Amino acid sequence: MSTPPAPPPDPVLRARGLARTFRLRTGTVTAVRGVDLTVARGSVTGLLGPNGAGKTTTLRMLATLLRPTGGTAEVAGHDLLRDPHAVRARIGHVSQSGGLDPSCTGREELVTQARLHRLSRAEARDRAEAVAADLGLTGLLDRPAGTLSGGQRRRLEVALGLVNRPEVLFLDEPTTGLDPGSRADLWDLVRRIRAGLGTTVLLCTHYLDEADALADRVVIIDGGTVVAEGSPTDLKRRATGDPSAPLQDAFLALTGRAPAADPLALP
Ligand SMILES: Nc1ncnc2c1ncn2[C@@H]1O[C@H](COP(=O)(O)OP(=O)(O)O)[C@@H](O)[C@H]1O
Ligand SMILES: [Mg+2]
Questions:
Q1: Can you tell me the distance from the alpha carbon of 114 to that of 239, in angstroms, rounded to the nearest whole number?
Q2: Is ligand 1 within 6 A of the CB of residue 56?
Q3: Is residue 263 in some structural domain?
Q4: What CATH number has the domain bearing residue 232?
Q5: Do 18 and 83 belong together in one domain?
Q6: For residue 25, what pLDDT is reported?
Q7: Spatial distance between the Cα atoms of 55 and 44, rounded to a whole number of angstroms
Q8: Ligand 1 pocket test, candidate residues 33, 55, 57, most atoms within 8 A of CB
């Protein structure tokens, strides 16, 4: 492989040797084994890899939800280990599984989330309205989450991640389980979040077409470690010699594995 590309300018996130081992009664599982990652401010960066690669564990560590067992990171200007509260105030995280209470309305969820970020009652109400307007959710705010479609729920989950106006938004498999129309809407939403709000987006996906469509920069992770990174065009050129090749061919050349290419494939 040719020389690695230069690091992107103005990083908003920098991880070095980030690692996580889980201890189970039956032994230990090394989910992430030393990830180095640099994310440019204002970019959409895709963490791409097959199921079990360590994407969710990496994202949860960067979002302060899980303590690393090795390495560290600086996120939005603060050290992940020394100052997790400062990091948490400046990021949003949308988990793979979601977490909406089906009996709560979107407004209730958004106001509660804003209050957790220490906004006053009045500020929280205003913020809920503003974020809902940004994301096209205004007409749905007073419906219980359980009555929303899968795509609408996902949009509300993204709104919850944006309620504190974060510098970095972490999205874990944002379109898994969505029908093709809702998936296209979500892609559009990610583009608007970056362009309209200037938020940096780090998204995990096992869909090559998703990484190809959305990400300026793709980091391929496999077996808990970074195996390649670059723009989609870069990766295609380096792996196959053809910048217009499908990202699937580059992925196969770089990992020796076939990823899930079908958006309707089971996770
Ligand atoms: N809490 C946990 N306890 C034990 N093993 C875990 C835990 N979370 C993740 N793992 C393991 O770590 C590996 C990476 O998982 P994960 O980060 O969820 O991958 P991905 O998101 O890329 O599918 C898998 O082998 C998974 O089984
Ligand atoms: Mg995952």
A1: 45
A2: yes
A3: no
A4: 3.40.50.300
A5: yes
A6: 93
A7: 16
A8: 57
List of E strands, the chain = 11-24, 27-40, 44-48, 70-75, 78-79, 91-94, 168-172, 200-205, 217-222, 225-230
Count of domains observed in the chain: 2
User: Nearest Cα to 200, choosing from 55, 51, 71, 37?
Assistant: 37
212 domain-assigned: yes
How many angstroms separate the alpha carbon of residue 173 from the centre of ligand 2? 7
Mutate to test the pocket of ligand 1, among 26, 56, 219 (most ligand atoms within 8 A of CB): 56
Domain boundary at 165, 181, 213, which?
165
Considering Cα of 176, then 179, then 184, then 188, what sign does the dihedral take?
negative
Instruction: Examine residue 109 and state whether it is found in any structural domain, yes or no.
Output: yes
Q: Which domain holds residue 46?
A: 11-90+166-255
Q: Is residue 3 part of a domain?
A: no
Is the CB of residue 43 below 6 angstroms from any atom belonging to ligand 1?
Answer: no
Position 97 scores a pLDDT of 84
Cβ burial, residue 83 (10 Å; 0-12/13-18/19+)? middle
The predicted-structure confidence for 168-221, as pLDDT tens digits, reads as follows 999 999 999 899 999 999 999 999 999 999 999 999 998 988 999 999 999 999
Rounded to a whole number, what is the largest CA-CA distance in the chain?
57
Co-location of 157 and 25 in the same domain? no
Average pLDDT, the chain: 91
pLDDT tens digits for 68-85? Answer: 999 999 999 999 999 999
